[in-house]
Structure formats: C-alpha cells, structure tokens
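[step 3/7] fold_predict: job queued, chain A
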Amino acid sequence: MYQTTSYLNSVSAGTALEIPTLVNVLIIDAVKANASDIHIEPWETSLVVRIRISGVLTELAHLPLDLGEKITGRVKVMSNLIGYITDLPQEGHAPASPDYGNVELRVSTFPTVRGEKIVIRIFDPANRSFDLASLGFDEETLHALLKLLARPSGLILLTGPTGSGKTTAIYASLCHLISKAGTAMSLSTVEDPVEFHLPMISQAQINPAKEFTYPIALRSLMRQDPEVIMIGEIRDPETAAIAVQAGLTGHLVISTTHSGSTAGVFARLLNMGIEPFLLASSVIGVLGLRLIRKNCAYCSEPYEPAPGLLSLLPEHLRETASFRRGGGCSECMHTGFGGRTAVTEMMVMDDVLRDAILQKLPSRSLQDVAIQRGMKTLWQLGLTRVAGGQAPLEEILRVIAADD
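[step 4/7] structure written:
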C-alpha cells in the first residue's frame, strides 16, 4: 500500500492533517514507484495526484480541492518560489532531503482556471545509471555509437520526443569518454537545466534572464579549449551554426534536437539556415531514441495479439515470434510492466548519405537511402523486442509508428 493511502486513512481516523507530511509521503511514494514526475492538478471535484511510471501517468490519490493552495504553498517553499504569485508560471529547484527520499526535485507551477497545477520532476541519483551498456541498446547500435565517440571531431545528434532517454544517453556517452581518457580530455557542457552533476566534466546552465544563452555560452566555451562539447538542445539557428562550426573545427560535439524522425533532423537544421555542405561535412551520426515498457519478469505470460495487429507484422514473424505480456501482479503494481528499455535507430553518415544531403532530398527519401545503407528502423528493432517476448506488440505500437 502507498504511504499516501496509509496517511490519509490515519487522518480519517482522527490524526491531524499536516501538509508538509502529506507532500513528503506523496514524493516518497513516487520515488518508491520509480516515477519520473508527479502531477498535482485541480480537477472539477478533487485535487488529483498522478505519477508518471515508465512514461505513463497513473493515479496516486484524489484529495479535497481545498488542500490545493496549501499544497502549492508548501511546494513553493521547498523550491524557493514566490508564494504570493499565483497567476504566472514559476520554475524552481528543491535540493535533496532525507524527508522525501534524498532525491532532487525540479518544480514547475502553472496557473489554470481552477488553481495552480504543479509538476515535479524527480531526479534520483540512486536510480540512475550512466553506463552505455545498461541502456538497452542493441549490439549493432552500441557498436556504431562507440565508434562515433572515438572520432576526434564531428557532430553527433540525438533525436526523439521528450522523455525518450536522450539526456541519459548523452550523459552515458560523456561518462564513457571520461572512463576511456581520464584526465587527458577536457569535456564541457551547456545545458538547460543541468539534470545531474557528472564527475570531471565542466557543466554550465544557461540563464536567459541574465542573457547567458546557448549562443553566448558556446562562443565563450570555444575559448576554453575543450575536446568534447555537449549542448543540451539545438533550438535556434545561432546555436545550430555554432554547433556545426565546432564540429568542423576539431571538436566532438554531442547534442539533441527535436524532429519527427531520425532523417528529419537534417530538414530541421536546413530550415534553421544551415547550408547543406556544412551539414554533410559536420554531422557524423544521428541516433533516434524511444523508450518502451518491458514485460514484468514475474507475471509475463504468453498471449495472442488481435488479428488486426498481427496483420502489421511480416509473415515470418507471425509464425516464429514468442508473444508475451504481463498479466499484472504485486511486483509491478498490476501494470504488467517492469522497467523500460531503449529502441534505437542509428544513422551513420557515409559518402552516399552525404551526397543525398547535398541534394536536399526530402526526409522520407533520405530515410530510404539510410535503410538501403543498412540502417535498422525503430519499427524493425521494436519488433525484435516483441519477437523475443520482451514487450507486447501493443506497447511497440503505442510508442513507434509502423513502417509502411
């Protein structure tokens, strides 16, 4: 049973309600469930608390609406936000405390017509591994990424939706470089925000309020003699231009950018005004990432997907796949899932792909060229997870669009 439920039951039995204790048990429950976020949101008749477990929101508690202002006030105190401002969004940070599981919290408040909504991002150092081998990459992708990281210069881009594991993959890549080179290599990052403090790496957090932006930080960083530069996100033409230039001038640059597909990264950068010949010369690889939920190891059982879903699979896979899904048990809180793993799409640049970029081929055509050059798609690698019984077919379809 969740501590929140136990605490609310004790309040119903006559124990005085203490808001700090209630907030603490909400966070502790989320930490124990390995949740990444807590949503506290006023609905029509209740204050709903939901936690995001393995990428999916799950209800934790329904509280009386009149507790909304008190809980919001407590969270604002914890994260050094301005308590009397209720009509503007705010963002803050709460340092780790033994009162709520020794995790760091990133807090965002947002005004709605029913009151303020709170979203708390949880950073649990005890539950975060930055080991590339443990991220669930298939062997071919991992080998290709390690070869790219061994290059002395160039631009490596990661793409995928929010929460797809891009930052974790980059941090693991940086830790791999440090483990190989030790003190002989200078690594620097520019992030928004810095999510975890990494050993032997100079990390900077941008602050637009003080005009410390990505472009300003990167221009200064170029004079700091780094071999490796990590940029949290390429989100504007100026940052893109500096990243490309750094990749051409002897630096290994690792960054992320949002795109609908792996090949779509190039269209996005072209739309930012980057010349095709610069992209073709600087980008050495693009890694598309998605996270899928794995079957619970305790209650995984054979099953048969619906005929309409089976029709999406190649015929040989329908006959040979070991379809499994979790039935739900106490170990997985009756979700049927236990943890997540990565599904990847690695596009390694070669002369043929560079020529395609120079010709400004559309993203779909560029994707086809990459597939002809040996790239396995997200859908193909997702199906290998299904065939091996690691995840149900429905989970792959929830996260990844089927190939035509």
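[step 5/7] annotate
The first strand starts at residue 35 and ends at 42.
Residues 166-181 form the longest helix (16 residues).
exit 0
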